[in-house]
Design goal:
Blueprint (H helix, E strand, L loop, with lengths): L2 H10 L7 H5 L3 H20 L4 H8 L3 H11 L1
Length: 74
């Protein structure tokens, strides 16, 4: 199977952020998608105003898990 396809599938399936650079190395389109994703995360983090429901939808975590993570980070 083409390694670029595998990289896209890993990204779509939710590869950890620490692997993003490795995945994007040989795939220019994926590199842009990853940069867009990083920008979105950075913006949301700087704003701190994403609703728990939206975070749950995007991350596939439960709202309870997100609230627990929020407590742990403060």
């Amino acid at each position: 199977m083409d390694s670029r396809l595998v990289n896209w599938l890993m990204f779509i399936d939710g590869a950890a952020q620490d692997r993003w650079e490795e995945l994007a190395m040989d795939t220019p389109g994926l590199k842009k998608a990853l940069l867009d994703e990083q920008s979105a995360f950075a913006y949301a983090e700087s704003r701190g105003s994403m609703s728990i429901a939206l975070i749950a939808e995007v991350t596939e975590l439960s709202e309870a898990e997100i609230q627990e993570l929020t407590k742990q980070s403060h």
